[in-house]
Batch of 2 targets.
Target 1
Amino acid sequence: MKKLIYGFGITAVAMGLVIGCADEIWDTQIPETDENPTQSEVAGYVFKPALVPATNERVEQLSVPDGFTVSKFAENLGNPRIIVADDAGHVYFSNPEAGTVVLLEDTDGDGTADRSETVAEIDKAHGLTIHNNKLFIVSIKEIYSADIRADGTLAEPQLLKSDLPDGGQHPNRTIAFGPDDQMYVTIGSTCNACPEPNPLHATMVIADESASNMEIFASGLRNTVGFDWHPTSGALWGMDHGIDWLGDEEQKEELNIIEEGADYGWPFIYENGKYNPGNRPPGNITYAEYSEQSTFPTLLYTAHAAPMEMIFYGGSQFPEEYQGDAFVAYRGSWNRSTAVGYKVARLRFENGEPAGFDDFLTGFLVDNNRAHFGRLVGLTILPDGSLLVSEDTNGVIYRIAFGND
């Protein structure tokens, strides 16, 4: 029997409501089978920082490493989520709330977009990727492709697939093509932690360019929004969202090397083999047996930081030591007593292996962390090597550049 210690009390901080509290701490008991009772107490919180405008004064106090600058590339965009850029400098962002894909362009090279044009209208459009001069768009249940014209506009999107599973809690799919020219699509879980009736939920799937012959590539992934391939090793890495309502410090966000056929444990096993007391593995399998068949994360990150897009840096503008490193956008916490996330982190790699996280873009939490002016989502690299970062609350895309670009 495994024993963990939890505090108890669910405090709705944002609403000022104390829902429950216990006078003492008890031992959590998580037996291997149903022959013994399960008991657990968890301290859960809701704290949502207030939203304030992205004024010039606030943008000026954003922090990046020495030699870097951060500025607004475009603003008043609504709710920009995923962003991609082609070799010609055309930038596309999805807005699921509006059901649009919008084209931005910096035509005069001053670091600010001066062109904005809606190029596709697709309900709940979210994931975007560019492959073979086509923009691929994934909504909740559909996958589309559209030829990119020389001016950046799109031909009429062609429906490739219409039967992805329902959305539930995590309806925002992401999409990319790997070094093998295969299509990879993430399908998040429908819930916080539950056995899924549809085997496609909480997975990454793989298909050909026409979205045919789709099959499960990896499973047990609660919601891996951000993933990318290491430019040297070709290994696929992704950041998975941890389970909510396990306390301030659990479940930590997971960096996984995503391999074909692997099961990453959700919803029964999390982090490096911990048991989720809320859900027992199905059938006659025990927690220990399920743990043995699960793949554990390579690195862990602060619980509830909410990792979004992840991208390896392959541009030529940043210093050489950034080559082969990745960036991860964190949208930020809500299920925690103090706010975390609301930043971009650099994920350092050494000899093809992840070595740790460093803050890269911070400062979106203000007023003693009681307010914010940006929940970060999307990442892409422009042809000049600068990095774009989207946030979907004030509707701004930021540009991070190095030196006198």
Note: DSSP finds two helices and 34 strands in the chain.
Target 2
Amino acid sequence: MQLWPVGAWSLRLYYFWYFAAAGIYFPYVSLYYHEIHLDGAQIGLLASLAPLAGVLLPPLWGLLSDRLGWRKRILITSVLTAAIVAPLVPLLGSFTLLLAIIVLLAVVLSPAVPLADATTLEWLRGNGGTFGNIRVFGSIGYLGSSLLVGILFSGRHILWLFPLYGAVLFGACLATLIVPGQHDRAHLSSGEGIRSILRDRRVTIFLALVILGYTSFAAYNTFFALYLKELGAGTSAVGLATGIATLCELPGMVVAGMVIRKFGVKPVLLAGMGSLLIRWIGYALIHDYRLALLFQPLHALGFASFYVAGVTFIDTLVPGRLRSTGQTLFTVAFFGAGAVIGSNLFGFLFDRIHGSGMFYVAAAIVTPALLGLIVFVPNIRADEPAQ
């Protein structure tokens, strides 16, 4: 029996706390690694572990969810384990041990987003509403935490990152206890799952273009804080830059849903990928960290709106009985495969051509992905049935 709050509000609470933890971690973890004297290649390797787990494991979680109905059980185990493990990181004395525990965190957190998205989409199918109106609470949590810890993490206080990260993840764990249960479990025939989804040429091409385009995003996700530091910024400026970007996610997610309903997913996808190109070129050209703040509102399109459109695109094309598997494949493409390549590539480049050169490479990578979306991806409205 579920206690209040249920439905939409329980999902909003989960997204809020999970992404509040992410706002403590992702904008600042490269500064933490720099503080403990890791080089760019080591930082890139560590940053690639979560995306690598996101490539290898979410399809497994999706199949377990779709076949066995374990979606909620996996979510609870995922976030609880991470909350317990994260505070142990400062106790480690070698890069090898650090590598091992970051691998463990990457593994246990790999189902946290795609299975939450699948749960949300299932609930919306039966109750109405838009994905963006629920997922936007994750952006609110990310915004608040990233701004607060930007002030807190000055100097050696950055070493509190992992204990604080684990503490906030407990909030997400509590929220998982009250999210809606799974109802769309299906008895799938042998071989039905990933292969049957990828037989749809529209899905395959779209996922390939997302992987290519969001390889470039690793330059921002992994090295943006160090890039700003190169330009003279402190941790409070990193927090401000992250806060501006995240604040712009809020209208980006809400408006994306309305635009998709009226015009379909393709205009939103093109705006999102095109904004990445503008943003990376902007970062490459500037020499004052304060000017970088001017490009942060583009995050609304390049991350928030594109994410909502991508989730909607996949959910429209994939049969309901394969919803979890479909969303894990999109997560692999958006957060995983390209980020594995990009984190290591940009870690290598950061040590050699520094931040501005790295973003020129990012712009070159995203260009063919944008052209591919223009030519190959059809426009689909959210209310079109899957075929």
Note: Residues 1-5, 187-191 have pLDDT under 50 and may be disordered.
